[in-house]
Every structure is written in structure tokens, then in C-alpha cells.
Design goal:
The protein is an alpha/beta fold. It has 18 helices and 22 strands. The protein has helices at about 20-30, 45-55, 65, 70-80, 100-105, 105-115, 130-140, 160-170, 195-200, 205-220, 220-230, 240-245, 270-280, 315-320, 320-330, 340-345, 440-450, 455; strands spanning about 5-10, 35-40, 60, 85-90, 120-125, 145-155, 175-180, 255-265, 265, 285, 300-305, 335-340, 350, 355, 360-365, 370-380, 390-395, 400, 410-415, 415-420, 420-425, 425-430.
Length: about 475
């Protein structure tokens, strides 16, 4: 049992402002000296990154499909260790589930697993007394839900606010704040930039978070919200530990250096990736694929996480020296794991731009977004998983690769052709995994990094790699 003051922020549906409000709430409390931690429910790296920027500690993704329901509370306890408040930003509407399993995967289900009060953010721009019926319905739909109160967004006037508060008072629902229509400005960098503004330490991103914090501080009763968060009972779990997650794995005698793609503000991987690699015995150093012209001296493995934005193809291509270094690392049999756009970076080219050339494949950007969970089966032994291992990952990409898979595919799943590439000690796929859900990947990678690559290399297959 772990004591963590906490709140879950949700909404009736997407578009009510819960993302900006969650970021602003963390920023406002951090400015007041409260140690805060932010979590995103669902596979959204971008929201998690801005929650981390606002809180001053890594923002974390907690996703029941990717890590398992039983790991939600331990991961929150781990990520919020020592914090005075943990804020969990929900996904979509309170009772929604992309996978059609709301009893396990909705924000309401996660709040129940975390024994956390829920604060509902409601856009009331076109609503009057009906807000009471709406909120009452959400509260009574699930008797196990702990609806602690609401925050009203896009209130038109003082008169409008008084009307809304009176209606909600009649059904016994506390109001913790009321923001006017322009109080939460659209200041965050475009989502096409993904997590890059946070990873790069962009001044625009920092200013945007500060503005949201100022807006929330001026309109939300922070002390009452803290009181609600502190009323949550202890989390029903001990904190997740990367060392315990690795089990009986024995770290190598030396500490192989693993380069993790990222920047001064974090990496393109989940924070647990670096934590697991260090627990497995690796030294983890960040390499910026957009700016660094060489891998860190002594690099024996490379991990490119799934949050690398596709929109940065020109910058990735222009960094020719690093592309050559990555190709050489792969050619010599050192382990490389590339997820999401990392696979495109390893390809021969993307939209006509030369990339690393590790894989004989060509990427082309398209308008439609491919997104969703996949229950994937490993098609071959690799640094990620043993052949036949079944894992759940998430895809979110616009670019498609030709061919879709190499002669040794990474994955297969129902309803789709084999996907991804396994070549020598390279594992590249547009499927992104959460390593907390499969910590054995860290152990496999570190073991491969510590080994003699000449003994580990799988023979090259004709036509697969042009380097």
C-alpha cells in the first residue's frame, strides 16, 4: 500500500479541454512549490510529454492494454514517489474504450483500479441547467465511480457561471473551478511536432505550459482540489520496481553503453525504458537524431523509441554523419531497436529523402492515419522477444513502408500481413511497445550489447540491406 494524493481528470468526451487543464493544473501547483507528477491514460506520448514538462519529472503513459491493469497502480506509485499530487489525464470520454472493453480499459475503470476521485471537465459553452443532468448521469451510471466534482470550461459570463453552480449544487456536485471561453488558450505547439518541442527543450513549449498554469491558477480552487486528492486512500499496490520487474536476470560484468534517441528534455521512449536498461546493467546515454553527428563514444546498442515524430524526415535525412554511424553500428552486429518512425529512419529513404539505409525499404507518407492496438506474435528470435512471444503494442503512423516486412519479419497479427524487419541484431517495426509490460526486452538487449557481436550476428540475406 502506497500513499499518493491523486486525481483523475476526465470529461464527457474528447474536446472538453481536459488536456490543457491537466497540464495547467500541474504547472500551477508546481509553481506553488508542490511536487507533482503527471500520467496519461492511453498510448499518447505527446500528452504525457507535456504533463512531464509541466510537472518537472517524467510524464508517464499508463495504458491497461500495453502494461496490464494490474500494473497501473504500481506504475503510478513508482512515477509519483515523493509527490504531493499525481494527476492522471484520462482518455476520450469517461466511460469510453477504443478496444471496446470499457469495463477494463476506460478512464472510469482505471479510476476504480487506482481508487482515485474523478474530476470531470465539462465544456459548458452551449449548456445551462442541463449540466446538472449530464453530470448526475455520469455519476450514477457506475455506482463504483467516485465523482469528486467538476471543473467548468468555456463559461460565458458571471451570470452563466452562477446558473451552472446553482444547478450543480442542487445535485450535490462540487465545482472546483470555472474557466471563461478564452481562459485556456490554444498555445501548445502543433501536434504534428509530436514530443519534439518537449524533448528539445523548446522555449515555445515552456512558455505555453506556463501560460496554461497561470490560467488555471487564476480560475481553479487549487487548495480544494488538493484536499480532494489527499482524501484518496492508499494505492492498493507497492511501487513498480525495474529491478524487481527483471526478476532473476543477471547483469553483465561490464556496463555496455546503450544510446537512447532523445534530447535534453527526454527521450522518444517511455521513461521506464531507460530505467529498465539501467536496472539490467546498461549505461544509458542520450543521442539526438536531429542534431548529434555521431553516436556516443563506446555505443554498443541503440534504441529509437516510438515517439520520434514522422514530421522530422528532412532533419533526420540531413544528418548524414549520424545516419552513416547508425548504419555502421547495425552492420557490425550491434543491437538496434527502432519503433514507430524509427523504422522509417532505418529505411533506405522516406518521401524521396535518403535515410540510414540499414533496411532495403522505402517509406512514403500518406494522408490517412493508421492507429490502433495490435496483439502481435514475434515471428523470429530477436533482441526484442523470443519467437512465438505474444505482446500487445500500439501503432500510430501515416507513412507506409515497401516492403512491409523483411525476409525475417518482426511480427504478425490477425487481419494483417507480417510486419517489420529483423536483420542481424536489428529489430525495426512501426509497432511501439511499452517495456514495463514486457521488461524482458531490456534484459535481452543488454545481454546482446554485452556479447561479442561476431558470435551473435545472423547471416545477411540477399537483397535485404544495401550497406
Amino acid at each position: 500500500m502506497t500513499v499518493v494524493p491523486r486525481l483523475v481528470l476526465s470529461a464527457p468526451s474528447s474536446g472538453h479541454g481536459k488536456n490543457a487543464l491537466a497540464i495547467g493544473l500541474l504547472a500551477a501547483l508546481a509553481e506553488r512549490g508542490v511536487d507533482v507528477a503527471g500520467f496519461k491514460l492511453g498510448p499518447d506520448h505527446v500528452d504525457a510529454a507535456y504533463l512531464g514538462l509541466a510537472s518537472g519529472r517524467p510524464g508517464r503513459v499508463i495504458d491497461p492494454r500495453l502494461v496490464g491493469v494490474d500494473r497501473l497502480a504500481p506504475l503510478v506509485a513508482h512515477g509519483a514517489a515523493g509527490a504531493g499530487l499525481a494527476v492522471v489525464q484520462g482518455s476520450m470520454g469517461l466511460y469510453d474504450s477504443v478496444g471496446g472493453r470499457p469495463e477494463q480499459e476506460s478512464t472510469a475503470a482505471a479510476a476504480a483500479a487506482l481508487r482515485s476521485p474523478v474530476v470531470l471537465v465539462v465544456d459548458v459553452a452551449a449548456m445551462g441547467q442541463s449540466v446538472a443532468a449530464l453530470v448526475h448521469g455520469f455519476r450514477s451510471y457506475d455506482e463504483q465511480l467516485w465523482l469528486g466534482g467538476v471543473i467548468l470550461n468555456r463559461v460565458a459570463s458571471s451570470r452563466h457561471e452562477a446558473m451552472l453552480r446553482e444547478a450543480l449544487d442542487d445535485v450535490g456536485v462540487p465545482v472546483y473551478g470555472a474557466l471563461r471561453r478564452h481562459d485556456l488558450p490554444a498555445v501548445l505547439p502543433s501536434r504534428r511536432h509530436g514530443v519534439a518541442p518537449v524533448v528539445d527543450g523548446s522555449a515555445d513549449a515552456v512558455r505555453a505550459v506556463r501560460r496554461l498554469g497561470e490560467a488555471v491558477a487564476a480560475t481553479v480552487d487549487l487548495e480544494r482540489l488538493l484536499g480532494l486528492a489527499r482524501s484518496a486512500p492508499p494505492l492498493p499496490a507497492s511501487a513498480w520496481s525495474p529491478e524487481e520487474a527483471l526478476g532473476a536476470f543477471t547483469a553483465p560484468a561490464d556496463r555496455p553503453l546503450v544510446a537512447l534517441a532523445g534530447g535534453p528534455g527526454g527521450s522518444f521512449s517511455h521513461p521506464e525504458t531507460a530505467e529498465l536498461l539501467r536496472a539490467a546493467g546498461a549505461e544509458v546515454v542520450t543521442v539526438d537524431p536531429l542534431r548529434d553527428e555521431a553516436l556516443p563514444v563506446g555505443t554498443r546498442a541503440l534504441v529509437v523509441g516510438g515517439a520520434l515524430p514522422e514530421a522530422y524526415a528532412e532533419q533526420l535525412s540531413a544528418n548524414r554523419r549520424l545516419c552513416i554511424a547508425v548504419a555502421e553500428l547495425a552492420r557490425t552486429g550491434r543491437p538496434v531497436i527502432a519503433e514507430g518512425a524509427g523504422l522509417l529512419w532505418l529505411a533506405r529513404e522516406l518521401d524521396g529523402l535518403p535515410m540510414c539505409g540499414v533496411l532495403d525499404a522505402v517509406g512514403v507518407s500518406r494522408d490517412g492515419l493508421v492507429a490502433g492496438y495490435r496483439e502481435a506474435t514475434a515471428q523470429t528470435d530477436s533482441v526484442v522477444a523470443a519467437h512465438g512471444t505474444v505482446l500487445v503494442g500500439h501503432k500510430a503512423h501515416r507513412a507506409v513502408l515497401t516492403p512491409r516486412a523483411g525476409q525475417r519479419p518482426a511480427w504478425s497479427w490477425d487481419g494483417g500481413a507480417p510486419e517489420g524487419f529483423v536483420w542481424r541484431n536489428v529489430h525495426a517495426s512501426q509497432l511501439t511497445l511499452h517495456w514495463a509490460g514486457h521488461p524482458a526486452t531490456a534484459a535481452r538487449l543488454v545481454a546482446a550489447a554485452a556479447a561479442d557481436p561476431a558470435a551473435e550476428v545472423v547471416p545477411a540475406e540477399s537483397g535485404e540491406v544495401p550497406v
